[in-house]
C-alpha cells in the first residue's frame, strides 16, 4: 500500500472510466416476517429490495434516491455485504461476492467502505478519534510506512480536521466534524468504493454543502467510486455522474445526470424533480408543473401488483395493474438512460398549465384554507 494520501485518480479520471467496479443483478432482500403460536413460522416477507440491476464504474459517483422506506439503505448494506442477499448476484472487480464467506470477503472488505447517516451513533463515544480512525488498519493488519498514528494525522488533515485533535473524543466535535471523522475512518484503508448512506441528512443545512464538497473532493482526487444515497434529487445533483431512482424496492429510472434532471421519463422522477427548487428555477424548466406527491409509499409487505407506483400515479391505466413495466431504454433516450413505465412522460418537460395534485385529501385541505 502506498503512503501517499493525495493519490492521483486511480485508473483514469472520474467520469471517463468505463471499467466496471461493481455490478449487481437482480439483487433482492426479503426480510421474513414470523408469526404463529406455539411454533413460529414465516407468514410473509418485507420486500425491501426486489430485483435491482446497477453497475458502478471505477471512480464513478452514482446517486441513489427515493422516499423513506423504498429500500435504499438495504441496497447499500447488501452491496457492502453487511446483509446477506435473498437473491441475485453481486460482482466486485470481476469476483462474485454474493455469498462470499467472511474469510473470502476479507480482501474485498477493505476496498468497500460505508459512511452512515448518523454521525452521533456511528462513532464509539468511549474511543478517541485516533483509535476510531486507526481501528480499520488494526483489524486488517495494515502498518503504513511511518506508522498508523502518522497516517491518522494525515487523514485528519485531509478531511479538514486538526491533527492535534487525535486524542479527543467524539462528543467534543460538532455533527459536521463527526461526519468528517466518519469519512477519515472510511478512507483509512484506501477504499475503491464508498457507500455513503444519507451522509448529510442528519446535519444542519448550513453544514451539508461542506460535507458534500469534502466527499466530492475525495471522490475526484482519490478516484474513489461512490454510491451516494439520498432522499431527494437536490443533494446528489452536484455530486453524481449517474442517478438511480428507487421506488418500493425497485429501480424505476436510471441514467446520466443530464438525462435524469432534464429529460426524466418516469412519472415518479418528475414528481421528485418538481420538489427540487433549484431545478425548477432553471430557465428551461421555469414553467415546469409542480407535482405534489402526497401519501405514503405503500407497504413493501404487499406491494401493488404490476407497477408499484400505480397507486400514486396520475397516468395509471389497467395495464399498469396487470403488467410490471420492465426497466428499458425508451426510444429517443440516451444510451444507459432506462425507465420502467408503460406510459412514460414526454422527453421535453413542458408545463401542464396547472399543478398535478395526487391526493384529493390534500386538495380538500387546501381549499378549506
Ligand atoms: N432488518 C429488517 N427487518 C425487517 N424489515 C426491514 C429491516 N430493515 C429494513 N426493513 C424494511 O425494509 C424496507 C426498506 O427499508 P430501508 O431502510 O432499506 O429503506 P430506506 O429507503 O433506506 O428508508 P429511509 O429513507 O427511511 O432510510 C422498510 O419497509 C423497512 O421497514
Ligand atoms: S407504468 Fe403506469 S402506473 Fe407505473 S409509472 Fe408508468 S403510467 Fe404510472
Ligand atoms: Mg435509509
Could you outline the blueprint of secondary structure elements for this entry?
Layout: E1 20-35, E2 41-57, E3 61-65, H1 72-79, E4 87-92, E5 95-96, H2 102-109, E6 112-115, H3 129-139, H4 148-158, H5 175-187, E7 193-197, H6 205-222, E8 225-230, H7 233-236, E9 242-247, E10 250-256, H8 257-262, H9 267-274, H10 277-280, E11 291-292, H11 318-322, E12 328-329, E13 338-339, E14 356-357, H12 360-368
Parallel strand pairs: 3-8, 3-9, 6-7, 7-8, 11-14
Antiparallel strand pairs: 1-2, 1-4, 4-5, 9-10, 10-13, 12-13
Helix pairs in contact: 3-4, 3-5, 4-5, 5-6
How does this structure look, described?
By secondary structure, this protein is an alpha/beta fold. The protein has two domains: 219 residues, 3-Layer(aba) Sandwich (Rossmann fold); 107 residues, no CATH class. Helix content is 28%, strand content 22%. The strands form three sheets. It has an eight-stranded mixed β-sheet with strand order 6-7-8-3-9-10-13-12, with helices on both faces. A four-stranded antiparallel β-sheet has the order 2-1-4-5. The chain has a two-stranded parallel sheet with strand order 11-14. Helix 6 links the parallel strand 7 and strand 8. Helix 3 runs parallel beside helix 5. The longest helix has 18 residues. The radius of gyration is 22 Å and the shape is globular. The N and C termini lie far apart (64 Å). The N terminus is likely disordered. Bound molecules: adenosine-5'-triphosphate (ATP), iron/sulfur cluster and magnesium ion. The site of iron/sulfur cluster has 12 residues, from loops. Pfam families: ABC_tran, oligo_HPY. Belongs to the ABC transporter superfamily.
Amino acid at each position: 500500500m502506498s503512503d501517499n494520501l493525495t493519490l492521483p485518480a486511480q485508473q483514469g479520471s472520474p467520469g471517463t472510466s468505463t471499467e466496471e467496479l461493481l455490478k449487481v443483478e437482480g439483487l433482492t432482500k426479503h426480510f421474513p416476517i414470523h408469526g404463529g403460536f406455539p411454533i413460529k413460522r414465516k407468514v410473509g416477507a418485507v420486500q425491501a429490495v426486489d430485483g435491482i440491476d446497477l453497475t458502478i464504474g471505477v471512480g464513478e459517483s452514482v446517486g441513489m434516491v427515493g422516499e423513506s422506506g423504498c429500500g435504499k439503505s438495504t441496497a447499500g448494506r447488501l452491496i457492502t455485504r453487511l446483509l446477506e442477499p435473498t437473491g441475485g448476484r453481486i460482482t466486485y472487480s470481476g469476483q462474485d461476492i454474493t455469498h462470499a464467506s467472511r474469510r473470502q470477503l476479507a480482501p474485498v472488505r477493505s476496498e468497500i467502505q460505508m459512511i452512515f447517516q448518523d454521525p452521533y451513533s456511528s462513532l464509539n463515544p468511549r474511543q478517541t478519534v485516533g483509535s476510531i480512525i486507526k481501528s480499520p488498519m488494526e483489524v486488517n493488519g495494515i502498518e503504513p510506512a511511518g506508522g498508523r498514528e502518522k497516517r491518522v494525522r494525515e487523514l485528519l488533515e485531509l478531511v479538514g480536521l486538526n491533527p492535534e485533535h487525535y486524542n479527543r473524543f467524539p462528543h467534543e466535535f460538532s455533527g459536521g466534524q463527526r461526519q468528517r471523522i466518519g469519512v477519515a475512518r472510511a478512507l483509512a484503508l484506501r477504499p475503491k468504493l464508498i457507500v455513503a448512506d444519507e451522509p448529510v441528512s442528519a446535519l444542519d443545512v448550513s453544514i451539508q454543502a461542506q460535507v458534500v464538497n469534502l466527499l466530492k473532493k475525495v471522490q475526484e482526487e482519490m478516484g474513489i467510486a461512490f454510491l451516494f444515497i439520498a432522499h431527494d434529487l437536490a443533494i446528489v445533483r452536484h455530486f453524481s455522474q449517474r442517478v438511480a431512482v428507487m421506488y418500493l424496492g425497485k429501480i424505476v429510472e436510471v441514467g446520466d445526470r443530464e438525462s435524469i434532471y432534464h429529460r426524466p421519463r418516469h412519472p415518479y422522477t418528475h414528481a421528485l424533480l418538481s420538489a427540487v427548487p433549484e431545478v425548477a428555477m432553471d430557465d428551461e424548466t421555469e414553467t415546469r408543473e409542480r407535482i405534489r406527491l402526497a401519501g405514503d409509499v405503500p407497504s413493501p409487505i404487499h406491494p401493488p401488483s404490476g407497477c408499484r407506483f400505480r397507486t400514486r400515479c396520475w397516468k395509471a391505466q389497467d395495464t399498469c395493474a396487470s403488467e410490471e413495466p420492465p426497466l428499458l431504454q425508451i426510444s429517443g433516450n440516451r444510451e444507459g438512460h432506462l425507465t420502467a413505465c408503460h406510459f412514460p412522460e414526454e422527453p421535453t418537460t413542458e408545463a401542464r398549465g396547472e399543478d398535478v395534485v395526487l391526493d384529493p385529501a390534500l386538495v380538500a385541505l387546501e381549499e378549506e384554507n
